Amino acid sequence: MKIYGLIGYPLSHSFSKGFFAKKFEAENITDCLYDNFPIPAITEFPTLLHQQPHLNGLNVTIPYKEVIIPYLDGLNDAAARIGAVNCIRFEGGKKIGYNTDVIGFSNSIRPLILPHHTHALVLGTGGAAKAVMYALQEMNIAYTLVSRQATAEAIAYDALDQAVIEKHTVIINTTPLGMYPQVDAAPDIPYQYLTSRHLLYDLVYNPAVTLFLQRGVAQGAITKNGHDMLILQAEASWEIWNG
């Protein structure tokens, strides 16, 4: 039996286990198992490897996409440039990190990009944001990071005025704000300045329409959640593990 899984914490509402269970059933894959491995701290990763010596591949989610890197034996080029990992392949006794978030995000947002979508706001600065930034660079879309506090790399939410919102016609939420069960939360941006020229993309997929997206719809914006991104990144992980 080939064993795959997901590490992160918490994992009570993760997408991957259900996705792979359906995939294995639909494709009559009977020699593979995908399970959740919640670890409260990344320092428990070596213990997990000792307990699961037959792992063939892992996905990595919040909050470990960046701090997992020192525990790996190598990174592919994209993961090294992004600085975040969401997929681990076990090959020849070594643990190699990949980033399939960038594939999932790029391929899911690209059909929605219009000529005036030249500047983006990236809400959040974690591992998922790094994959989004990498993808935007590949699509030649300029971006500005937004964080709770201003830094050398990011502006603060309170700097988002009408001029900034009008210029940045793509707004991407990479934070967990609005994810079930905290469905009444949303990034603190001035939604009143959104228009039909805006594209709002939320990496959150549960609920399907977050408060962030609801407020975009109310202003006439194009909206998309992270469900397709998850499917695309999961399939990309499967190809990496079995390629």
TrEMBL record:
<protein>
    <submittedName>
        <fullName>Shikimate dehydrogenase</fullName>
    </submittedName>
</protein>
<dbReference type="InterPro" id="IPR013708">
    <property type="entry name" value="Shikimate_DH-bd_N"/>
</dbReference>
<comment type="pathway">
    <text>Metabolic intermediate biosynthesis; chorismate biosynthesis; chorismate from D-erythrose 4-phosphate and phosphoenolpyruvate: step 4/7.</text>
</comment>
<keyword id="KW-0028">Amino-acid biosynthesis</keyword>
<dbReference type="InterPro" id="IPR036291">
    <property type="entry name" value="NAD(P)-bd_dom_sf"/>
</dbReference>
<feature type="domain" description="Shikimate dehydrogenase substrate binding N-terminal">
    <location>
        <begin position="6"/>
        <end position="88"/>
    </location>
</feature>
<dbReference type="InterPro" id="IPR046346">
    <property type="entry name" value="Aminoacid_DH-like_N_sf"/>
</dbReference>
<dbReference type="Pfam" id="PF08501">
    <property type="entry name" value="Shikimate_dh_N"/>
</dbReference>
<keyword id="KW-0560">Oxidoreductase</keyword>
<keyword id="KW-0057">Aromatic amino acid biosynthesis</keyword>
<dbReference type="InterPro" id="IPR022893">
    <property type="entry name" value="Shikimate_DH_fam"/>
</dbReference>
